[in-house]
Specification:
By secondary structure, the chain is α/β, with parallel strands linked by helices. It is built from 13 helices and four strands. Helix content is 70%, strand content 7%.
Length: 378
């Protein structure tokens, strides 16, 4: 006589639960069509606003309806927010649903209502404010890590810092020198064309010296470094984030800011003034050469007028700006790199964002410095 043994059935999975863990939204339980029927979807979608990541590692079951809801949740969270922790089958289902979603219907010929525009402006302002606060917080963490180096000097990754000095500084010397040389040539040519009308050609020396030493030398150098080194910082750290190397560092008890960010920040702070000095010299050489060719101002006359009529503070103003520009470029580049999600789309988008935001902030900081030095009379 056969005896049937009844195995206890596994308890049914619980409906989906939403847990806010700081800036991350974690989902657990069961996310299928049955769970969605009893879900307050508008309220659930609002929970994704402002979050920087959606973790679905705790979900036990996801069907097509659940994948559609996850895509809607990601769209509500905004650009750059990635869905992480999904099993391979779930990730493939989510991607299939995303590809087959119908594009939003274009409202042709209809003006956007005023309330919708105000809502969109408010959402963008809220995202910008949250990002600004997050950047300030990140800056504080980096400054705190740097401030602890004199107390614990062994924490400084000197080899990594020297490597980044070479990559961000020495490797950029040719392009920076060439750019500054050409800027000096253009300034001398345009200045000669205008000043010749008033018989004041000799003042082209003052024009070149003040423009290059005070503003254009360091500003254009910072813009080149932002496009070259700032984007490299974002791409390198973002690739490590995609390969989960940053998470591995945290698992080992290592601080990613101390290992990845601090060497890059210190390297750029050291090298940008050097690049600015090289740009100043190259710009003056280019201006002197064009003045000699176009106006007949010999190098000796150019040097004599440069030394006599140019205040050393014009050079000092440019050098004072350099460390602040370097800090802005390095902080934004590393921050955007650590914000990369698990897909290549976010890597490319945030690399572009890093360059644009760095250049914008450098120009804003230069304007603030110009106002400050005008007020103090320098």
């Amino acid at each position: 006589m056969r005896k049937t043994v009844h195995q206890p059935s596994a308890p049914p999975a619980q409906p989906v639960r939403f847990i806010l863990e700081g800036p991350r939204l974690a989902l657990s339980g069961r996310l299928d069509i049955a769970a969605l029927e009893g879900l307050d979807r508008p309220r659930s979608l609002r929970m994704a606003e402002g979050c920087r990541g959606i973790d679905v590692a705790g979900l036990e079951r996801v069907d097509t309806a659940g994948a559609w809801f996850l895509v809607a949740l990601q769209q509500r969270a905004g650009e750059g927010v990635a869905i992480t922790g999904a099993a391979p089958g779930t990730a493939q289902l989510i991607e299939t649903v995303r590809r087959n979603l119908a594009p939003p219907a274009a409202a042709k010929g209809r003006a956007t209502p005023l309330l919708d525009r105000l809502e969109a402006f408010g959402r963008k302002s809220d995202r910008a404010g949250r990002k600004a606060l997050s950047l300030v917080s990140f800056l504080g963490q980096v400054v705190a890590a740097i401030a602890m180096l004199p107390v614990r000097p062994r924490r400084l990754r000197l080899t990594a810092m020297v490597h980044h000095c070479q990559e961000a500084g020495l490797a950029a010397v040719p392009i920076v020198a060439l750019m500054a040389f050409l800027i000096g040539v253009v300034l001398a040519f345009q200045g000669a064309t205008q000043l010749r009308q008033f018989g004041a050609e000799v003042f082209v020396v003052d024009l070149i010296a003040i423009s290059v030493l005070r503003e254009l030398g360091i500003l254009l150098t910072a813009i080149i470094v932002a496009g070259r080194s700032g984007s490299a910082f974002t791409a390198a750290i973002g690739a490590m984030k995609m390969r989960e190397e940053v998470d591995a560092l945290k698992t080992l008890g290592l601080d990613p800011i101390e290992i990845l960010v601090v060497p890059r920040v210190l390297a750029l702070i050291v090298m940008l003034p050097v690049l600015g000095f090289i740009a100043d010299v190259s710009g003056l050489i280019g201006g002197a050469l064009m003045s000699w060719i176009e106006l007949g101002v010999s190098p000796a006359v150019f040097q004599s007028r440069l030394v006599t009529n140019t205040d050393v503070w014009h050079f000092g103003v440019g050098m004072i700006k350099a460390p602040f520009f370097a800090l802005i470029i390095a902080i934004i580049g590393c921050y955007e790199g650590l914000s990369v999600g698990g897909d290549t789309d976010s890597l490319g988008r945030l690399t572009s964002t890093s360059v644009v935001l760095s250049i914008f902030m450098v120009i804003v900081m230069d304007a603030l410095f110009s106002i400050f030095f005008a007020v103090v009379g320098v």
